[in-house]
Amino acid sequence: MSDVRARRLTTVDVFTRVPLRGNPVAVVLDADGLDDAAMQRIAAWTNLSETTFVLPPTAAGASYRLRIFTPRSELAFAGHPTIGSAHAVLAAGLVEPRDGVLHQECRAGVLPIRIDGDRLMVRVPDPTVRPEAVADAETLGAMVGAPIGGVPRAVDCGPVWLVAEVPTEAALRQAAPDLPAVDRLSVTHGLPGVTLFAHSDDPETPIVVRSFAPASGIGEDPVCGSGNASVAAYLVAFGRPPARYRASQGREVGRDGRVDVEIGASGRPIEIGGAAVTVVDGQLTA
Questions:
Q1: Residues assigned a catalytic role
Q2: Do 114 and 140 fall within a single domain?
Q3: What is the three-class DSSP state of 254?
Q4: How many CB atoms lie within 10 A of CB 209?
Q5: Are residues 136 and 87 in the same domain?
Q6: Which conformational region is residue 61 in: left (phi greater than 0), alpha (psi within -120 to 50 degrees), or beta?
Q7: C-alpha triplet 236, 208, 27: angle, nearest 5°
Q8: pLDDT tens, position by position, 111-160
Q9: DSSP state, 98?
Q10: Which among 56, 150, 195, 219 would be 20 to 30 A from 168, CA to CA?
Q11: Same-domain status, 242 and 134
């Protein structure tokens, strides 16, 4: 049974410098004494795409330990909760970076988070593009309400997203997925959902992304870090991505976030990140 008491709770908008844009994450800054069931209840109660819980580290060299929950389940890694939680622990004065780097312990391992001005950039777990076909282009296109170019592939970077390219930005922005069908596909293959991307003519944001995760209790994720990391891994496998670019995501749900992506010369490592801003600071009794 959990130790019920007042705990500091903060909400951070991630991949934005503007409050009420980007993607919100709730961060419980002193999660000691909360058991798994209590964490899951809190995550269901906040009803955000993710809620995180900050704990003392157990791995050598880690700055802190983080557990990440959707309204339905725990994740090994997720991008926007990682960036938002790093922002929160720095703002609360709970940790000090070493040489401009935090080290977050999570179920995916100990991940470095680089502080670059007001941006935070996390090195994502090494992604794997799976060779097997989860759905062909025609089937997936009918499911998401948009044409699919190329071959859809499952990409594992902690969460396993089904990633596919849509030929035009307009077609992607107009996509209207059959969420129950996406849910069934996701549950069958152990995915949080489907991430789609398209190339854009906007030089500021040459990639546009949308992520649908009904299996995690999220119809459309406003701005998804792991989805963007999976897109980068897909581009490495099937194209020639620039060494760095900025992606647009969230406009369709009124959030309009920006995700910075940096790719090593050999296609690894992949870093994703951006700015974050605190919008709520208070306490939770749990």
A1: 50
A2: no
A3: coil
A4: 25
A5: no
A6: left
A7: 95
A8: 999 999 999 999 999 999 998 889 999 999 999 999 999 899 999 998 99
A9: B
A10: 219
A11: yes
pLDDT for the residue 224? 96
CB count in 10 Å sphere of residue 41: 15
Cα–Cα distance, 40 to 68 (Å, whole number): 9
- According to DSSP, the residues that pair with 120 across neighbouring strands are 115, 274
Q: Say what the pLDDT of residue 2 is.
A: 76
What is the predicted pLDDT for the residue at 39?
Answer: 98
Q: What is the DSSP letter of 157?
A: S
Weakly modelled stretches of the chain, pLDDT under 50:
none
Report the relative pairing of strands 128-129 and 119-123 from DSSP bridges. Answer: unpaired
Contact by Cβ (8 Å): 42, 189: no
Helix (H) / strand (E) element for 46: namely: helix 36-46
| 24 and 107 both lie in a single domain | yes
What gap in Å lies between CA 231 and CA 213, rounded to an integer?
15
- From the CA atom positions of the chain, what is the Rg in Å? 18
- CA atoms of 5 and 205, how far apart (whole Å): 44
DSSP annotation of 250 reads -
Q: Provide the pLDDT for residue 1.
A: 65
DSSP, collapsed to helix, strand or coil, labels residue 85 as helix
> Is 123 domain-assigned?
no
**Which residue segment(s) compose the domain that 90 sits in?**
6-118+275-285
C-alpha angle with apex 211: 244 to 149, nearest 5 degrees?
75
Domain co-membership, 132 together with 251? yes
Same domain, 106 and 50: yes
What tokens were used for 64? 């802190």
pTM of the predicted protein model: 0.94
Kindly state whether residue 210 falls inside one of the protein's structural domains: yes
Q: Could you tell me which of 238, 155, 152, 247 has the C-alpha nearest to residue 199?
A: 247
- With respect to residue 137, please indicate whether it lies within any of the assigned structural domains: yes
The domain that holds 32 is classified in CATH as 3.10.310.10
Tokens 């990633």 sit on residue:
163
Where do we find the tokens 């994720």? 221
